[in-house]
Amino acid sequence: MSTVDQLNVAIPYRNRIEVCAELVRKDLLQPAEDFLDRSGKRIRQSVVELVFAMAGGSGPLPLCLGEAIEWLHAGSLVIDDIQDESPMRRGQASLHMQIGLPLALNAGNWMYFQALEKLFDDSLSRNLQNRLVHHLVRTALRCHRGQSLDLGTRVDRIEPSDILSVVAEISRLKTGSLVSMSATFGAVAAGADRSLRKALSRFGMHIGIALQMRNDLEELRSMTSGSNEFHTMRMEDLRNARITWPWAWAHSVCSTEEFAALVDQLSSASNDPRVLSRLASELLSRTNRRGEAAIQQRLDRQFRQLAAHEVDNRALAEMKKVLNRISSSGRDAREIADANLAK
């Protein structure tokens, strides 16, 4: 009898299955579920639910739609934290800091496939499953294109005149695409016609961009708050010289010399938290008013355009209430704007 045969005889099949299942739960399933359960507003799930109602959906919205969106987003956050070397996520250690980089990388990738699996739910028709899977795959591809732009470009190594175009495209491909997918899920599930689906998808895209604007402002604000916790959690964009909305706004309000001085500060910071904090304070003081106005204008414009379509007014009013915090700075905005909403 071979050694392999001897081992198979020595370890009953049921025991092997139980042992391996327990190991998988410990190293994959439980960490992934715990990460998903961390406190968060789950704004994308709210979008799919309210869009379903706005588009005239009847009966309860299938739970698997919101679950698919949340798993996809959670996976993107795990991978993004690895790429950014972020130590914290939502007030706790990042997953790769908890379970190690190899297991976290595996878990993040698993979450993408878990999102797809959720859409093969028996409550959905085969036609609806195919349409939703198609939207999710296209969104994931767009998010990865946006992530490539985000990771591969630095604000101190790009023509200042190109910053606005690049940050707009990053926001569209990442945060915008994911919220647009949430709106599309709700519209498709509700059976909305093509015109309304397009309007709701466009609405989601711009809401996502507004969320990214808010997140970028709040990261600067958190670095100037004097809180050691936020200093630890939220300085990745400056530390990695990411191209963000405040840099685009600074280019529009500063002279050429003033903007060059800000970029020089960034280049010479050498990842020193104190220097980065001072830069965050100066960048925020120059761009806060411009940024707040840009967020409010984008939200107002999207609600006006959506009101021109035949939608459920009660659901529209609830959507305004849910998204109202995006247009106000401070703690409520920080709670709703996840540390890496676009990622």
Task: Note down, in words, how this protein is organized.
The protein is mainly alpha-helical and 343 residues long. The protein has a single domain, classed as Farnesyl Diphosphate Synthase (Orthogonal Bundle), CATH 1.10.600. The protein is built from 16 helices and 2 strands. Residues 228-233 and 330-343 have low confidence and may be disordered.
In a few lines, what is going on in this structure?
The protein is an all-alpha fold and 343 residues long. It contains 16 helices and two strands.
Distance between the termini: 54 Å
Q: What is the CATH domain class?
A: Mainly Alpha
Instruction: Report mean pLDDT, rounded to a whole number.
Output: 88
Oligomeric state, counting identical vs distinct chains: single chain
Choose one word for the global shape.
Answer: globular
> Helical residue percent?
over 70%
Question: What is the number of beta strands?
Answer: 2
Counted by DSSP, the helix tally is 16
Notable features of this structure?
single chain, 343 residues, mainly alpha, Farnesyl Diphosphate Synthase, 16 helices, 2 strands, globular
Topology (elements, then pairings):
Elements: H1 3-10, H2 13-36, H3 43-54, H4 63-84, E1 88-89, E2 92-93, H5 95-99, H6 101-118, H7 126-152, H8 163-190, H9 194-223, H10 228-233, H11 236-239, H12 245-253, H13 256-267, H14 273-307, H15 313-323, H16 331-336
Antiparallel strand pairs: 1-2
Helix pairs in contact: 2-6, 3-4, 3-8, 3-15, 4-6, 4-8, 7-8, 8-9, 8-12, 9-14, 12-14
